[in-house]
Write a structure and sequence with these properties.
The chain is α/β, with parallel strands linked by helices and 198 residues long. It has 7 helices and 9 strands. The protein has one domain: P-loop containing nucleotide triphosphate hydrolases (Rossmann fold), CATH 3.40.50. The structure holds guanosine-5'-monophosphate.
Length: 198
């Protein structure tokens, strides 16, 4: 089946500001962007809504979907049974509709998706250093000490994997980061530059 849109993968350590970047990008870009809402077994944070940030599922609901082959990829991201997954149907529907579908997923998930969509545009967003990342995660105040430690351990591994991405953006100032990514994406209109490193 021909899919007419483009797939954009945005990764980066938890606390790098990806969600804010993606929200602003969707508001400000003239491109036909749409966010693929993932499923997760983690509990919603205050203010998060089912179907907006994530589809918040029970372990059983998630497992049923996994066994039914509904995920393009799914991963236990921080150990201890917290699962996240990209729904095949969401991605295909967006691409068939000519949309530029954004996946905000972890590095392992990104590598899986690249096996199916090797021309995806890959962007790694990070705060520059592990010290700065820890400061931002602590300031966010949403994680327990244990969860913070796990997120920092995973972040260190993810930073090591950033060479898999075609583009690396250091998020110092939200406005600049959004503008930089928008400009970068605009260059893919009409395929003026190749879509992936592969
Ligand atoms: P958070 O719990 O802070 O919303 O997200 C934690 C991590 O899970 C982030 O690094 C995010 O990119 C990743 N993530 C979110 N959705 C998915 C998904 O569908 N698949 C994978 N592999 N990772 C995801």
């Amino acid at each position: 089946m021909t899919e007419f849109g483009k797939l954009i993968i945005i990764s980066g350590p938890s606390g790098a500001g990806k969600s804010s970047v993606v929200k602003q990008l969707m508001d400000r870009s003239s491109l036909p962007l749409t966010l693929s809402v993932s499923a997760t077994t983690r509990l919603p944070r205050p203010g998060e809504q089912h179907g907006r940030e994530y589809w918040f599922l029970s372990r059983d609901e998630f497992e049923n979907k996994r066994q039914a082959g509904e995920f393009l990829e799914c991963k236990e991201v921080f150990g201890r049974g917290t699962w996240y997954g990209t729904l095949k149907e969401t991605v295909s529907a967006g691409l068939n509709d000519g949309k530029w579908v954004i996946l905000e997923i972890d590095v392992q998930g990104a590598l899986s998706v690249l096996q199916d969509y090797s021309d995806a545009i890959t962007i790694f967003v990070h705060p520059g250093s592990m010290q700065e990342l820890e400061r931002r995660l602590r300031d966010r105040g949403t994680e327990s000490d244990d969860s913070l430690k796990r997120r920092l351990d995973v972040a260190a591994d993810e930073m090591e994997m950033r060479h898999h991405y075609a583009h690396e953006i250091i998020n110092v100032n939200l406005d600049n980061t959004v503008e930089q990514i928008d400009r970068l994406l605009q260059q893919y209109q009409g395929e003026k530059i190749p879509c992936s490193k592969s």
